[in-house]
């Protein structure tokens, strides 16, 4: 079953974006994403050889949007519930977390908040975190092999912290985006 926020992998590479997650037990499956201040959580059940990854934007959103999968608590619950439906046992879940970079100095601390949120959530839920790469000033490309619980990251070389946000140029032109 595939929806806008859930992707089922079938032995190939699956890319997930903000608000999405994917699960698989296929031996050759790889789930990947690119993160800046967002966080991705890789969860797997080592006995069932089943795992998945989510990608969330912020720890929490406005109350009117509590069901949106790009917010931390909802993203975590969606991933955990999908894994359990597919045969994982909650008490055996293990985690690795990535992201939470400070991409724009002084503009926001969303990356730090995301990192603190995910570690706190895992601790509260009793899910051991076996590895983490949080913070810093560079984006990351993360690949996760869900059947084996193996993850790797590569820092994205051309994305460094922006010290200041440039002031908009004065113009009478109208820009639509």
TrEMBL record:
The keyword Hydrolase applies. Transmembrane segments: none annotated. One of its GO terms (biological process) is chemotaxis. Coiled coil: none annotated. Keywords: Chemotaxis, Hydrolase. Its EC number is 3.5.1.44. It catalyses: L-glutaminyl-[protein] + H2O = L-glutamyl-[protein] + NH4(+). One of its GO terms (molecular function) is protein-glutamine glutaminase activity. The keyword Hydrolase applies. Probably deamidates glutamine residues to glutamate on methyl-accepting chemotaxis receptors (MCPs), playing an important role in chemotaxis. Belongs to the CheD family. This is Probable chemoreceptor glutamine deamidase CheD. The gene is cheD.
